[in-house]
Amino acid sequence: MQRHIPNVFTLLNLFLGCIAIVFALQTETISIYVDNELSSHYNIPERISVASYFIFAAAVIDFLDGFVARLLKATSEMGKQLDSLSDVVSFGVAPSVILYQLLKISFIKEEGGLDVSITWLLPAFLVACAGAYRLARFNIDTSQSYGFKGVPIPAAGLLIASFPLILHFGNSLVNVNDLLTNKWVLYAIILVVSVLMVSTLPLMTLKFKDFTIKNNLPKIILLVIAVVAALLLQWLAVPVVFVIYIILSLLYKQKQS
Fold first, then answer.
1. What value does the mean pLDDT take over residues 211-238?
2. Topology of 2-204 in CATH?
3. How many CB atoms neighbour CB 20 within 10 A?
4. Distance (Å, rounded) from C-alpha 19 to C-alpha 4?
5. Can you tell me the mean pLDDT for 203-215?
């Protein structure tokens, strides 16, 4: 029975990801009238920010299932595969649905945007495809214990999940709402995030081999930046920390070479 406990956590991760998709797809119908005559209806994502909360909750569970598995010494090949299947839903499909909805919002701002073809929205799901590829490669690569090749899918998923929360809560220091509802910016984000996941860029894990400052300096720097950014930027801290994580990983790798 004990060996199945980590799998229960993993399935909870999957469950939360499914709920995130449901909330991301929930819409509210608005009607547009011209000269007191009904012109058109449009469904806007009503609870997209709620979906983000469930993705972040899934990330917490994703961390706990690995921790519990090591604590109970209950790691297994089945658990490894189940973890990847859950991650592709919570951090691949759910964030892709959020991007799909953000693209819809970006088009509605333009003339004729109400009639946008679904073809313009489908690139959002490249993130899910890239994430699935990233997970499959990770599962057959035994060299990624203390270093990643490409951006991990949870990091990419959390980055995207932060966008609706940034839009919802705003920030008094920096206003990026126009950027996050600009279709070309969103297409660029989709492309960059997808490429980063399928790439073989050497990126650090957040695991500690020991407790020396020298060997863990980039992780300590990242932690300090994350705390300061969270205090100053709120949810905008997530994309800031994401970029700093990649920069520190590459700089530290060059120093080690």
1. 88
2. Four Helix Bundle (Hemerythrin (Met), subunit A) (1.20.120)
3. 30
4. 23
5. 74
